[in-house]
Structures are given as structure tokens and as C-alpha cells.
Write a structure and sequence with these properties.
1 helix; eight-stranded antiparallel β-barrel; about 170 residues; 11 strands; two-stranded parallel ribbon; mainly beta
């Protein structure tokens, strides 16, 4: 009988000494204030620091026709990684659903509101709303896609644009 009580007593001591596991990263969506040991379960969102664009790749087509006659048929395939040419350069998303866009000198050049529904990130500035697809997000990086699929007529010319931009940023 004494052995059973002793074993129960030991198991209570050892079970109470276990550290609580969970996400211990402060910028994670599922940060656990009570966790003492990281269990690798951290999930990250757009809030928490600034995203610095590293590259923008564009792939797609653009056609133009007048009176049904093709006057342009172009394939677009570019990669831009020169910081002076990257748009946006730096985006900072805040928990109040506002964002600020900054240039290379860290001066604000724009901003607006944002929302997220699943993997769709919607950002709205003074005159434009963009829906970006979040392809991948981690503590250090985010990969977004912006799809342009539009047709419009200007001066009698019909333009058709089918373009995907992939934006890679580091936090």
C-alpha cells in the first residue's frame, strides 16, 4: 500500500513539473502567454513588423486590337529585384486594419486599410482596391500573388491583359 501511495506521489510531482508547451513567438497569431516551451505550432499573419519587398516577378500576356484586327500581342516575363524599382518597397500592417507604404528612406508614401479572408489579402488606398493571394507566410517571409485580368478600350483600341505578379518580401 505504501508503494502505491509513493508512486502516486511521485507521478504528481513529475506531472506538475512539466513545462507548458505552445507558441512562444510574440508576433505569432497563436502566441500562448502561458507557454514556457515552443512546440513549433506558431502561425503568422501580416501584422508584426514591416515587409520589405525583395523581388517582383511578372508573367502574362497583353494584346491589343482595333476593329478586330490584332495590332499587338506581347508576352511579359520579368523579374525585378533592384530596390530602387520595387513597388511597393515597404509595407507595414497594423492590428487596427490600417497599413502604411514607405519608400527606401522609410518615408510614408501611401497607406489605407486592409483585411484578410482566408488566403486573400485585400488592401485599399485612396483610389484602388487590390486583392492579393497569400501563397506562403512565415515569421520571416511572405509570398503574394496579384492577378490582373482585365479588358478595356482606349481611343478605339481594345486591350486585354492577363498578368500575374509574384511579390516576395522579408520581414
Amino acid at each position: 500500500m505504501n508503494k502505491i501511495i509513493y508512486l502516486i506521489f511521485l507521478s504528481l510531482i513529475f506531472s506538475s513539473c512539466q513545462k507548458e508547451q505552445g507558441c512562444i513567438d510574440l508576433i505569432a497569431l497563436n502566441y500562448n502567454i502561458d507557454a514556457e516551451e515552443d512546440d513549433g505550432s506558431c502561425e503568422f499573419g501580416v501584422v508584426g513588423g514591416s515587409w520589405i519587398t525583395q523581388s517582383v516577378s511578372s508573367n502574362g500576356t497583353m494584346t491589343a486590337s482595333m476593329l478586330g484586327i490584332p495590332i499587338m500581342d506581347t508576352t511579359i516575363s520579368t523579374v525585378e529585384n533592384n530596390p530602387d524599382s520595387l513597388q511597393p518597397y515597404k509595407l507595414t500592417f497594423y492590428a487596427d486594419n490600417n497599413f502604411v507604404e514607405s519608400d527606401q528612406q522609410d518615408l510614408p508614401v501611401g497607406g489605407g486599410s486592409w483585411s484578410q479572408n482566408g488566403n486573400i489579402l485585400t488592401i485599399t488606398d485612396q483610389d484602388t482596391t487590390l486583392e492579393l493571394i497569400i501563397n506562403d507566410i512565415s515569421k520571416e517571409s511572405i509570398n503574394l500573388s496579384l492577378v490582373f485580368l482585365t479588358s478595356y478600350t482606349e481611343s478605339g483600341v481594345l486591350f486585354n491583359i492577363d498578368l500575374v505578379q509574384d511579390i516576395y518580401c522579408l520581414r
